Amino acid sequence: MENLASKYDGILQSGNLTKYILETSVYPREPESLKELRNATASYPMHFMGTHPDAGKLMGILLKLLNAKKTIEIGVFTGYSLLLTALNIPDDGKIIALDPDRKAYEVGLPFIKKAGVEHKIDFTESPALPVLDKLLEDPSNDENFDFAFVDADKHNYWNYHERLIKLIKIGGLIIYDNTLWGGTVAWPEEALLDPRRKKVRQDAIAFNNAIASDTRIEICLASIGDGFTICRRAH
Ligand code: SAM
Ligand code: CA
């Protein structure tokens, strides 16, 4: 039953349809710097972790609609979503970018510099939780951010949520990535054999259930990329 090939075909689980969408509307309009970063990532270990470019397009539009200026990114890797965010916020916008892996960030850094947006990025080489806790020690950070993108260790998503909900403004957005985990959230438990993937599936299901009953937010679990849970802070 375990079919890992489908993981790379996006949540549609159709290579042809995913290819059609990417080739028709995403790649032709993808900024050159993002394309170059994506190509440089293609030969890097675990390259498939980069944000799906079609989901990236949606994120770019949401950032613009929101007029997002101050954002938080948890899980940078080589920086596809980070560069995309930097390209979609104003010149005086700021992104707090958190990842314990600086080496991966440095793969994308030349393209971030070439795009002229490095000044918008404040990268901290660290797991995200202690940095979020530090931000929360200063009350001026409460409700001070417009947007957050979470694409890191799945078992911590609820811990991130409890902190981000205080940092994000009312009306602001938090997006959680990979919440459909290759579609496996709807598979029977015994269908997954790999214990690590089984655990992430359980984490995703627990997070999806918890967030669905959080009345502080409006949510849309969008079937794009690998599942994008878009949350708007309602109050
Ligand atoms: N958003 C990235 C992109 O568009 O290329 C992909 C992120 S990748 C799926 C997950 C990243 O989360 C990895 O780079 C990993 O080092 C990072 N990560 C793992 N644990 C973390 C933690 N506790 N805090 C922050 N980042 C973490
Ligand atoms: Ca992801």
TrEMBL record:
It is an enzyme of class 2 (transferase). InterPro entries: Cation-dep_OMT, SAM-dependent_MTases_sf, SAM_O-MeTrfase. Keywords: Methyltransferase, S-adenosyl-L-methionine, Transferase. GO terms for molecular function: O-methyltransferase activity; S-adenosylmethionine-dependent methyltransferase activity. This is Caffeoyl-CoA O-methyltransferase. GO terms for biological process: methylation. The keyword Methyltransferase applies. Belongs to the class I-like SAM-binding methyltransferase superfamily. Cation-dependent O-methyltransferase family. Pfam families: Methyltransf_3.
